[in-house]
Amino acid sequence: MSVTDVYAINISQCLTGTDNKIDISVRYSQWSKELIQFAGITKGLSITPDDITISTNGKPYLKNHERLHFNVSHSGEWIVCALSDMPVGVDIEQVVAVPPLMYRDHLAHEEYVALRSLPPYKQNEYFFRLWTYKESYLKMTGEGLLNNLTTIVLTPDRDTFTLRAGGRSTGVHFKEYTVAENYIMTVCAQHNTFGPLTILPLEDLPDIIQHT
Fold it and tell me: What is the CATH topology of the domain spanning 4-210?
């Protein structure tokens, strides 16, 4: 049975607060590739940066390891990666204050009603939960945020959600992970077997990759 492995690195020690957006973007890309390479090592695979490429619809894939699927996400101080032998999507978001207008713009009607029924102090976090579920699903399918988020509807189901897209049940599975306070992270996969979250020291990644 397929298992989705999940990894994370904290990059706070490398963020100075004076970096420009281009520098940050370049370093995010470098760290993401190192995290993917490490994830491959755990599967007994040698993944090089050249193996990591982007499809025509913008979804990353491994051109020399076509049976292995991965997805990455970053927000604030964290970069996360999910690895599986079936399509997978992951999203992490730092919970920050957003204008309530965003709720209506990005949520289906029933989701918006459910959110507004919560105490005000819980609404923002709930919005980000819904967001990470939707984005992880769209990243798994390869659609990304080009899709209208209001056409994807999440229905509470115990401690998780079920998802309908275009009015039809998708049958996908979700797993939330706690990586740090004020962050929400969700993985979406076609199966329901998720491994634990492995948090790796950023400074060790290059040495692990080089000597494996």
Answer: Ribosomal Protein L22; Chain A (3.90.470)
